[in-house]
Amino acid sequence: MTYRKTYKGRYKPKNPDKYKGNPGNVIYRSLWERRFMIYCDTNSAILEWGSEELIVPYKSPIDGRYHRYFPDFYLKYKDKDDNIRKLIVEVKPKKYTKPPIKNPKRKTTKWKNEVLEYIKNDAKWKAAREWSAKRGMEFTILTEDFIRPYK
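User: That's the sequence. What structure does it adopt?
Assistant: Structure tokens below.
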């Protein structure tokens, strides 16, 4: 049996007044999320932040039903021109932001699961973009190109 280590835990904000939500219950589900939490917590341009504090409804193309999507992060920050902006952030490995191969030689269970996961994520992200825009916010997906957990 192969043991796969998961990187989950609780993050205790150094600046709990910046955290919007319960600062005693901040959970990270990957090292990338933890690294981004540290960035949000310690960056003076970020005025407030939260982790999985917002709910975005979306309709799944898989089952046709409405579900709730909890984006990884919410930020309120000052940009370089001192404008206050609000941003919703999803942290994902780059490979999950692209559709799987269209017609592989073998349609394995793994491939089918990847297709379903991509379809679900794509629906979530489209809903998040629309939901954010209606509220004067932006939505973005951060990958390893922005977050490096081992630096």
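The beta strands are 9-11, 26-28, 46-51, 56-59, 66-69, 73-78, 84-91, 138-142.
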